[in-house]
Amino acid sequence: MRCPKTTMIVFKNVTRSYPANPPGSAPVIALENVSFKIDKKEFVSIVGKSGAGKSTLLKLILAQEKPSQGQVFFDGQDVHKIKPQDLPGLRRRIGAIFQDYKLLPSKTTYENIVYIMEVLGKSDEEILRDMPKVLEIVGLDGRTQNTPAELSAGERQRAAIARALIHRPDVILADEPTGNLDPYNTSEIIRLLLKINEFGTTVILATHNKEIINSLEKRVISLEKGKVIRDEEKGRFIL
Amino acid sequence: MWIALKRIIKLGWKTFTRDGGVIMANCFILVLTISLISSLFLMKEVSQFLIESLEEKVDVSVYFKEEIKEIDILDVKEELSNVPEVKNVKYVSKEQALKDFIQRHEQDPVLMKSLQEIGRNPFLASLNIRASDPAQYGTITNFLEGSLFENLIEKVDYYQRKTVIERIFSLTASAEKFGIVFSILLAFLSFLIVLNTIRLAIYNSKEEIKLQKLVGASNWFIRGPFLVQGIISGILAAFISLLILTSICWTFSPTIKILFSDLSIWRYFTNNFLTIILIQLATGIGLGIISSTIAIRKYLHV
Questions:
Q1: CA distance B213 to chain A (A)
Q2: Count of domains in chain B?
Q3: pTM of this prediction?
């Protein structure tokens, strides 16, 4: 598929269904015939009730799951045709903030955040230079030698955000990044995402937080039962 | 490249020092396996020794007619020494045979009395033949009987001993075969045990492995630390096994020496020290690497 150079992510008639369980019942359809484009440097919110397909959509971009039908493109590349050995290359261009944090339980917070830098082969100097900045941005100084189990939910969430930011990815996928934060911290994080977006990073934010969406005045894609029911510039949270 | 290698080793070392309990369990199983394999190596030597000493006891004697002169017998001896299947030939003169008999049966008055009654040396001069391989006794006997010496020979005692020789031969052959099959089986079983222990340890980390894949770590960057951990455990286990084996050999070597005077486990152990260390290290490291690679494989498909 040919895309203009400004296009970052394309969903083309994507359907994702899970096999019927028990056999004979209707298969579960997480996404149905979803198509949209996201440009580079865009800030897009994906809204919908729980189970509307937001997380599935993000998993498809990360090649964590395969579409049953249709194609997903990342910077002109069909994500699900990338060879397994080239997948890390795609994933390193994406900073993912997972709903359940997905921090490495056996490593300290510091090691968790640094891990992606190590994966990328950054030098120790670069790590020492960037680490304090990121910790300051997410407000996590002082707890870096604790393991995730020793952190509060909010701190874990911030560690997850720090990990997604530190290597300056092209795209940030944020799945409910403020789910465990108080209103003050929530607006901080959203402001942070906006700032990162201003510097040129594409941000895809999946949330069901009405206030956030309404205050953003950015593009909103609304999902319901796996279908795109609305896709508006400067959208609002209407379900 | 170097920075990645350095980090992989560092990550591996960190997990090694953190997961003490799991690592100890792995090391324990590895120690058992390594000790088993190195004792198989020692057992091979012991059984080889026993088989050889058994085979050593087998020989064939050719008895010469009474009137044959010593010089002719020595000719035959010379001739026999040139036969490739023959390991060595020993000449036993009539006098020697008598001496041996008396020495052996000194305590038996009946035999001694009968010997006195005969009043002369009833023994025949003989050649004592040892073959390099027990299967060759038949060939040697055929050679003797079909040759020019035939009319010099009173008898060859091969036919009396044939069944015993063949039985020993088949016994040692099957003992060797059994030993090989048994060793392979044990080695395979211990490999399975190590594999399962390491698989359980890695199962604990499966979520972590998936996560590392999701943030874009390459398979080698994920696998590397586990391999490093496997190598460290292997080296540690090899070292512990070496200590155990050394003390066992040291303690039991004198006892074994009392039973078999020619068999010194301790000397064998020290002579082959380097080989043993290599076997232990190779087993430890090899098992660590192979099991980790197999155990981690299925979690890398994310």
A1: 7
A2: 2
A3: 0.73
